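Q: I'm building a small set of examples for a reading group on sequence design. Run inverse folding on the following structure and report the sequence directly after it, with nothing in between.
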């Protein structure tokens, strides 16, 4: 039997590079100089958390984040 879980990853630009986090697993937060590295690191952190849960015979963590998007036309703000 296959079990598929979906995890939301948020990547933001910061002064030192990029910050990536799974909002449903706040302990997964990582920082890296490039966006690709930040993405890889947060994926690794999520995988490590899942492996740890399985090893401890705990439930696999679930991301219950509700994702909402806000689209804005920035031209409205330009004078």
């Amino acid at each position: 039997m296959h079990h598929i879980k979906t995890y939301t990853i948020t990547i933001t630009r910061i002064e030192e590079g990029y910050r990536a986090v799974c909002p449903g697993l706040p302990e997964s937060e990582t920082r890296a100089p490039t966006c690709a590295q930040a993405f890889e690191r947060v994926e690794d952190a999520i995988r490590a958390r899942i492996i740890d849960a399985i090893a401890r015979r705990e439930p696999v963590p679930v991301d219950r984040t509700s994702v909402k998007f806000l689209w804005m036309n920035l031209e409205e703000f330009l004078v």
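The first strand starts at residue 10 and ends at 14.
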